[in-house]
Design brief:
Elements: E1 6-7, H1 17-20, E2 31-39, H2 45-52, E3 56-60, H3 64-70, H4 74-82, E4 85-88, E5 91-92, E6 99-104, H5 116-120, E7 127-134, H6 136-143, E8 145-151, H7 157-164, E9 173-177, H8 182-190, E10 194-199, H9 242-257, E11 267-272, H10 274-279
Helix pairs in contact: 7-8
């Protein structure tokens, strides 16, 4: 089995397993309250936000060009040097230790993907490169179970959610671009029972809660290249049931098929458990 190499700036170690998780007595790592996984580093905007809020971050990015670009950011460079950030330069895949094709879209870099059709979207040419692979299970085993996972892996979000459903140690909160109808089913199978949709096209309207309910307060202007608020910082009154998710998804699907203008948006789906929200005092005890 090939383990992830979390690269950092020269002279400093990556976040090591013993720093991120302790065993729960059954050989499984426990959740680390101060660790976030950013699956899909892209330009590093989300990672920078999590670091500024005081969290440690493991960022996954298969595109070496994006890693190079992110490392121009002084916040990211400093966090690597301090050991608060590890960058895993691999693709999330069905098996670890493989070398697979990854398609780089130079004109629309956020479309780059392990899926050629997804990366090109019928409009652009792509460059094929080979990248090493890692599974979510191997990341959890070697780097710890995070408090929150943000996933935005173009054309591979369902790979994440499917693998998450097979884990026994789970993050308290997860989010994923709602790009596949199987994602909510995978989240439910994993044991999550509270959900929240976030319209990424309206990020410019978001105001961060102050005081923050997650980490430090850090005022920022969210953009379409960011995933936005997470966990308990999300509006507490907007968590809904699986049944309500299904109802809204069906309605949204009808609007999309009819090419209704208000459906021209993209959404992240966040998930957690009632017991997690209750333990934090966000809802009545369950």
């Amino acid at each position: 089995m090939v383990h992830a190499k979390a690269e950092t700036s020269p002279g400093r170690p990556a976040i090591r397993p013993k720093e991120t998780a302790e065993s729960n007595g059954r050989g499984e790592p426990q959740l680390d309250r101060y660790l976030i996984y950013d699956l899909g580093l892209h330009r590093g905007n989300d990672t920078e936000y999590y670091l500024n809020k005081g969290f440690k971050v493991i960022a996954l990015e298969a595109n070496p060009g994006m890693v190079k670009r992110a490392r121009r950011n002084p916040v990211i460079v400093a966090a690597e040097q301090e050991g608060r950030l590890g960058i895993v330069t691999m693709a999330l895949w069905h098996k670890s230790g493989e070398s697979i094709s990854f398609y780089v879209n130079s004109k629309k870099d956020d479309w780059s993907s392990v899926d050629k059709t997804w990366a090109e979207k019928g409009a652009h040419e792509t460059q094929e490169i080979k990248v090493p692979t890692i599974t979510l299970a191997d990341m959890f085993e070697k780097l710890g179970v995070p408090y929150y996972v943000k996933c935005d892996l173009e054309g591979a979000d369902a790979i994440f959610s499917e693998q998450l459903a097979r884990q026994t140690s789970l993050p308290a909160f997860v989010s994923c671009e709602n790009s596949d109808p199987n994602i909510v089913e995978h989240f439910r199978e994993a044991g999550y029972d509270c959900f929240q949709f976030v319209n990424q096209a309206r990020h410019h309207e978001i105001v961060s809660p102050n005081p923050a309910r997650e980490g430090n307060f850090f005022e920022t202007q969210f953009t379409g290249h960011m995933s936005g608020l997470f966990g308990l910082d999300l509006p507490l009154d907007r968590w809904i049931s699986y049944e309500e998710v299904q109802r809204i998804s069906d309605l949204y699907g009808q609007l999309r098929r009819s090419k209704f203008a208000l459906s021209n948006a993209w959404y992240d789906l966040h998930a957690t458990k009632k017991e997690t929200l209750a333990a934090a005092g966000a809802i009545a005890s369950v």
